[in-house]
């Protein structure tokens, strides 16, 4: 590795020297004409631009080489950290660090070609890097857990983001109005910055949670929140930007809320419709006979939901997320086996690459974005205020959710005993962990690129530094925080219906006959006993019927009470499960595969046991 | 589909109208500032550019939506054509056609944002679209067939491309020198155009050959030629461009040849070294326990070979091709099973998408490249001369190869009977088919983007139209030509050691226990009886030892003679097989897997039977 790194540095230095020797204009003001994507000859022939297309080709090769090299280093470190069981330093922190080191080298070396080619480009981010992550999240989402915790998720995602943005916006506005920093921004701009810094990042925290196998409930709440968060921040930011430079009116608030709800609903519908479209296409054609074409089509149509939704001024993220969920829920069972495997692995691989890439990009940008204006005090104030803002969002809303569940539980069961006997839906440790999980990610930076006005680069620099700081500080301490708070780890997810029969070492030839094949064969018979119709599952489940009876005797311990509550709350979503099973699945799934379609839903009865 | 198309058109019209209403500058001269990749805000704030980042985001979403929509249409048509067994129209022709239709719509609609966003960009082509195709070609290459026909391939690829470029260059130079078209280009520029139009395209022809299961020998020759062709055209073109605007000297010829040979060798070595590096990394680490990281790393390191090689002024295509071959030959056996499957499917999927994308791009470019200058006579002359040039390359060189093999056969066997008894290495039908397979592809267009000088856009337009014409004319008639020439089709490749156990319909639940599992299990025991050490395989092969004896009796019919010749010629490459088996494989392959490593090489004894 070190040899390769030396080569890289030498290569960079060599290129830099070449660039210098050729007298390329190194004036940073000349940058607009030489951004990535401009390498094609028509743009290359701008007056004063003496670099030939071949040289540009070379530079873009080196830029891509560096990027891939950083990705390789990050992945390699990730392997090394996992292998050595080092948990203090996280992969994403290393990605940012590598990005910073190389960013510094690029900044110091003469010539601006590579520097321009590796600049953070919000268009690349939104169109290339973000979709795979969101799609994979939707596709890999544990649907049972997600919909069981939908109330908490929506509360944190919608009012939570709103509170966070407003608190942050107000603090920033007051600070800048004090005039200590000689910057002066309008309230709408402060709110825009608040919105960019309210998008929490799913990547780091969830990879840690995955490694520790944290309690699925906490995992689902934080995951769901951070996913919807992004969508909501984007919509809020865009709404704010529409009011940029105009006097803020009180009616704008309602206009904004209405716009938000409309956007969210329409985007959700677009995603679901496209997912269903894929399911029907696969059902009514013979395309599964050509799995190469089939896998391409599934991938492409999923992406279409993103671009179509964005193109219609809706939220592509929401559409893509729900498209992924719908694909997994219906279309998955109409695919050929090969496509099932291909799609799953490709989504995973693209998401993994994008995640690492994004953090490297962030690190790089700290040095390669030449126009940034860093104001230390503003950065410190912003850093403190995002903690305040998150505190204001998480704790009151957690108490609200707890209160909501307590009221509901009392109403459902009648009042037995005092309130204290009813456990919190979100206990204090979970609240603290949710607060701690509020690190900010690349979505914020990408949004901040769209800021307008005089202090654009000051605000962008602030957002960038704050995001990197949260990832380093909160991301680096999450593992420790899990231990301090005593949160249950090592939970095995029973619903994990994965295709991971290949997640093993290359089988030894001798063991081959019993190794992967055994697991592959085992999977099949195990389908039969569990595939009871869902509608009767609750009755057949000895655990839940037992707990319902014991609860009526009012001699329940906390554990039993929780299970009872789960039963009550999940009964609300039972109507959809029944409707889905009896009406939707026969329509969307291939009749030949309806049996195997039920296979996955064998997990649904286990929902009850899963909400602990 | 038609609804979606209507939406697309409406969407386009709507966007166009919006763009118009906003008074966006539609002057084509203003295009340089608004190329793809420019959508990020720093570039968006050029003076006079009133479009906000949000609007630009919307436009890039629509551009991507259109691209993906075209890809989906092309893939869907491909499914439809295969399903209905329609062979007159080929998928790539349809891709070009769809591209042209949408290009026309975009051209006619007001506003230039989408038009700019979908412009053919040679940087995207070389850095994003081409690598997957080349990597997949190398990875899927039938190594035994390739190295058995290496002589023919190299002859067609190296002197063939050279002859073709020179003939084409001379014809073009003479035509322009006549002064009928009022364009005047130097000889070096004519030679550059010759080089761009000498890169034959592997995509269309090989997908037809695959569908028909054409004789592997013909397949391999055309495949190998078109792969190396691209690399050689690129090197030739770049060499020519270095002499642009300078007086041509005779010594430049030798300089060019020396440069070419050096480039080819170094690139090949880079590719092989990186492939071996991956094999050693996988062997000496435990990374196969983390297949997600492993698959990403294999993919990334393979790409690194491309960018590293390009960055060093070498040929990335050659490096990537040989990196793919080395990966399959060594690294494949050190991977976890999951990575083997992931890598294979991802390479295939990316290659499939890139191929379709490239042809759509070509079609689009005919209308969206606003600066093109079409000169009908020049196009006709160029169209005729590429046929002449290919004729001059294919037929004399085929005769040369035939002569070479005849001499060698006579020397090896002593002279038994007359020359006529020795069959041609490349019979006339194969020569004709090789001539016919000379359609030009996107590499030529991408190279032509790099042309310099006053008549740049005239030459680019000519190259673009000629490429599209060859694909439509030769691509459309290949299937018919195969029948007319009576070329053997429906050959089953015995060496096809594929992972396609999932290339089946989603298994019916009842048949599940016997269906795919049976085939999966079958694969394993079948390894044992064939995995005899390679060094003794020739002796054990009853067919070849039989034919060797019968040849000494000089009572052989043509069929037997051919097999004898194959034995003689392949004996030359036997030393490498032995060296590989006894020295290289133990070093590069994981000792635990050496047994399964041999599994694939069980196909090597079959080489002999395969050269018919």
Describe this protein with a few key phrases.
homodimer; 612 residues; mainly alpha; Na+/H+ antiporter like fold; 27 helices; disordered N terminus; disordered C terminus; antiport (chains A, B)
How is this fold's topology laid out?
The structure is a homodimer of 612-residue chains.
Chain A: H1 2-21, H2 41-44, H3 53-83, H4 91-108, H5 113-117, H6 122-140, H7 143-148, H8 150-177, H9 187-196, H10 203-212, H11 216-242, H12 251-284, H13 291-311, H14 316-329, H15 337-368, H16 376-413, H17 428-436, H18 442-448, H19 456-485, H20 516-523, H21 527-530, H22 537-540, H23 542-552, H24 558-572, H25 574-588, H26 594-601, H27 607-610
CATH architecture of the domain at 123-413 and 422-485 in chain A: Up-down Bundle
For this structure, the CATH topology of the domain at 123-413 and 422-485 in chain A is: Na+/H+ antiporter like fold
| Helix-and-strand structural type of chain A | mainly alpha
Oligomer: homodimer
Shape of chain A: globular
Please outline the major beta sheet of chain A. none
Top-tier CATH class of the domain at 123-413 and 422-485 in chain A: Mainly Alpha
Q: Average the pLDDT over all residues of chain A and give the rounded result.
A: 72
Radius of gyration of chain A: 26 Å
